[in-house]
Write a structure and sequence with these properties.
Blueprint (H helix, E strand, L loop, with lengths): L1 H9 L2 H22 L15 H26 L2 H5 L6 H30 L9 H25 L3 H17 L12 H9 L1 H13 L10 H21 L38 H17 L2 H22 L3 E2 L2 E2 H31 L2 H4 L7 H30 L9 H25 L6 H15 L12 H9 L1 H13 L10 H21 L5
Antiparallel strand pairs: 1-2
C-alpha cells in the first residue's frame, strides 16, 4: 500500500511541485537574489538556506499532502469501504504516512545534493545522526498534526485551505522563509509556541558547520514531541471514517409516498426564446462566482493571502523606507498585482481546464451558449474577485498601516485594474490552450508566478540590490510592469493623474500575445 501511495504522489503534479520543486526553486531564487557570498566564517549563504527549505518541504508533505490525501479518501468513501474488508483501515493511513516520510527524506536529500553540487554547501558528517533524528521527529510531529486536522474537519476543501493557510503564514515567522527576523514580541511568542520554528532551528543546527558538538537540540525536539503527542491524541479521539452526510449501514429511512407536486405560490411561466446577451453574461457571471465562493482555497490565495502578506511584511522587515516610501506603501501595489495574477492566471484557468476535461467546452458547440459568453463570464468573475482584493488591500493599508492614497488617482487605479485582469486572464487562457492536462496546469502557472514574484519586486527578500540579470528577467514579464503601474496609481504624491503609460503598454502587449495564442491553439481540445 505504501507503493500505491507513492504512485499516487508521482501522478499528482501539484503534490510534487510543493514538496520537491518549490523548495528547490526557493533555494535557487533566494541564493540568486541575496547572493551566495561567504560569511565571515567562510561559509556560503546557501549553507543556511538548505535546512529551512527542507523543513518547508517536509511540512508540505506530512502536514498538507498527508492531511489532504486522507481527507480525500474519507470524502470518497474509501476509508468507510475498507472497514468492511479484511485489510485493517489503519494500514491505509500507515502506508500514506510512510509514503510521505519517504517523500520528505527525498526532498531533504534533493536540496542537500543540489546545495552541495551547485552552491558549495558542506555536509556536516558528524551531525548526520542529529539530522536523521530531527527529520524523524519532525515527520512524526507534522503527520500527527495533519491527521488531527482531518479529525476535526469534515471536507477535503476545508482541510486543504486550513493546512496551506496555516503553514505559509507561519513559515514567515518561524525561521523558514525569513531566518532571524526581528519580530515584535507578540509575533515572536506565537512562533516560539508552535512546532515549525523548533523544527527549523533543530534542522539548521545540523547544517551549521561553525558550531561544535553533534547538532542535537533536545529542547526543540521535546517541543515537537509534545505537539506530535497532542496531535495523535486528538486524531485518535475525534477521527471519523465516514464521509460527511453518509448514513450508517443499519440506518433506516421512512419511505415517502408519491403524490402530486405542491403548488408554488407566485410561480410564473417562462416563455421559450433566445436569451439576450445581457442575460447570458449575467448568468455566467453568477455561475462562476458561485463556483468561486465554493472553493475556499482559491478565495484564500486570491483575497486573504495578499492581505496577510501586506500586514506581515512590514512587521517582519521593520518600518524602514523602500525607494523613498514606507514598506506598506511600497508593498500595496505589489500585493494587488499578485492578487490579480492569482485570480486571472492561476484560479480561472484551472476552472476552464477542468471544464474542458469534463467535456463542457465541446458541448458548448451544440448548445445555445457560445464559448465567448462562457469565457466572458469567467473573466468578469476575475474582475470582481480582483476588485474585491484591491478594495480590501487598500482598506487595510489605509486604516491600519498609515498608507495614503490620492483620491484623484483612483480612476488610474481602476484602469490599471481592468488592464491587469485582461492581461493575466488572457495569459491564463493561453496556458490552458497550450497545456492539455488540467492536472499539470496549476504547477505550471503557480510554478512560474511564484519565482516571478521574487524578481518582480512583489516579495521582499532582504535589502540587497537584485542582480542585473534577474532584474532583466523581471522586466521581460508583465507582473513587474503591472506592479509599477499600480505603484504610480497609488502613490500619494505627484501632480500627474497616475497613469504609467510605458508599463501599461507592456501589459497590453502581453494581453495581445495571450489572445493570439488562444486564437491559434483553441480551447476545445482536451
Amino acid at each position: 500500500m505504501t507503493v500505491h501511495a507513492l504512485r499516487g504522489f508521482t501522478r499528482s503534479p501539484m503534490s510534487a511541485f510543493f514538496t520537491l520543486v518549490f523548495p528547490l526553486a526557493f533555494l535557487s531564487i533566494v541564493s540568486a537574489v541575496v547572493g551566495n557570498e561567504t560569511t565571515g566564517a567562510g561559509v556560503p549563504v546557501a549553507q543556511f538556506l538548505v535546512a529551512p527549505f527542507a523543513v518547508f518541504g517536509v511540512a508540505e508533505a506530512t502536514f498538507v499532502m498527508l492531511a489532504t490525501d486522507t481527507a480525500g479518501l474519507r470524502e470518497r468513501g474509501v476509508l468507510m469501504r475498507l472497514r468492511g474488508t479484511p485489510v485493517p483501515v489503519w494500514t491505509a493511513l500507515a502506508a500514506r504516512m510512510a509514503a510521505m516520510a519517504l517523500v520528505s527524506v527525498a526532498a531533504t536529500a534533493l536540496l542537500t545534493g543540489v546545495g552541495a553540487g551547485f552552491y558549495g554547501v558542506d555536509v556536516v558528517w558528524r551531525k548526520i545522526p542529529a539530522l536523521l533524528l530531527t527529520l524523524a521527529v519532525g515527520i512524526a510531529c507534522f503527520s500527527a498534526l495533519g491527521l488531527a486536522l482531518v479529525a476535526v474537519t469534515r471536507t477535503v476543501l476545508v482541510v486543504q485551505t486550513l493546512t496551506q493557510g496555516l503553514l505559509i503564514p507561519l513559515a514567515f515567522i518561524s525561521d523558514v522563509f525569513i531566518v532571524g527576523a526581528d519580530l515584535p514580541v507578540w509575533l515572536d511568542r506565537i512562533g516560539s509556541a508552535l512546532p515549525l520554528r523548533h523544527f527549523a532551528r533543530a534542522m539548521a543546527q545540523t547544517f551549521d558547520p561553525t558550531g561544535g558538538g553533534y547538532g542535537f537540540r533536545p529542547g526543540d525536539l521535546l517541543v515537537m514531541v509534545a505537539w506530535g503527542l497532542l496531535g495523535a491524541i486528538l486524531a485518535l479521539w475525534r477521527f471519523g471514517w465516514m464521509p460527511r452526510g453518509a448514513r450508517p449501514a443499519h440506518a433506516t429511512t421512512t419511505p415517502v409516498e408519491a403524490g402530486p407536486a405542491p403548488a408554488v405560490p407566485g410561480l410564473r411561466t417562462i416563455e421559450a426564446g433566445r436569451p439576450t446577451a445581457t442575460a447570458l453574461l449575467s448568468g455566467q457571471v453568477r455561475y462562476a462566482l458561485t463556483s468561486q465562493w465554493r472553493d475556499p482555497l482559491s478565495v484564500f490565495f486570491a483575497v486573504i493571502f495578499p492581505v496577510l502578506l501586506l500586514g506581515l511584511f512590514p512587521v517582519v522587515f521593520g518600518a524602514g523606507e523602500v525607494h523613498g516610501l514606507t514598506a506598506a506603501q511600497y508593498l500595496l501595489p505589489g500585493m494587488t498585482a499578485y492578487a490579480i495574477a492569482v485570480a486571472g492566471y492561476v484560479n480561472m484557468p484551472e476552472d476552464v481546464a477542468q471544464a474542458r476535461g469534463r467535456g463542457v467546452l465541446k458541448r458548448l458547440l451544440g448548445g445555445p451558449l457560445a464559448l465567448r459568453w462562457y469565457l466572458a463570464g469567467r473573466i468578469c468573475t476575475v474582475l470582481v474577485v480582483s476588485a474585491l482584493s484591491t478594495v480590501l488591500l487598500c482598506a487595510v493599508a489605509v486604516l491600519f498601516l498609515d498608507v495614503r492614497i490620492d483620491v484623484a488617482r483612483l480612476p488610474a487605479l481602476a484602469v490599471v485594474l481592468v488592464l491587469g485582469v485582461a492581461c493575466f486572464a488572457s495569459i491564463g487562457l493561453a496556458a490552458v490552450a497550450v497545456l492539455r492536462s488540467a492536472a499539470s496546469l496549476v504547477p505550471v502557472t503557480l510554478g512560474t508566478l511564484l519565482p516571478l514574484s521574487f524578481v518582480s519586486d512583489i516579495f521582499m527578500v532582504g535589502d540587497a540590490p537584485m542582480p542585473g540579470w534577474l532584474a532583466a528577467v523581471g522586466n521581460l514579464f508583465p507582473l513587474k510592469h503591472l506592479s509599477a503601474a499600480l505603484l504610480a496609481a497609488t502613490s500619494p504624491a505627484g501632480p500627474d493623474p497616475g497613469f504609467a503609460v510605458g508599463h501599461l503598454m507592456v501589459v497590453a502587449a502581453w494581453t495581445a500575445v495571450g489572445l493570439l495564442v488562444v486564437r491559434l491553439r483553441g480551447l476545445y481540445r482536451g
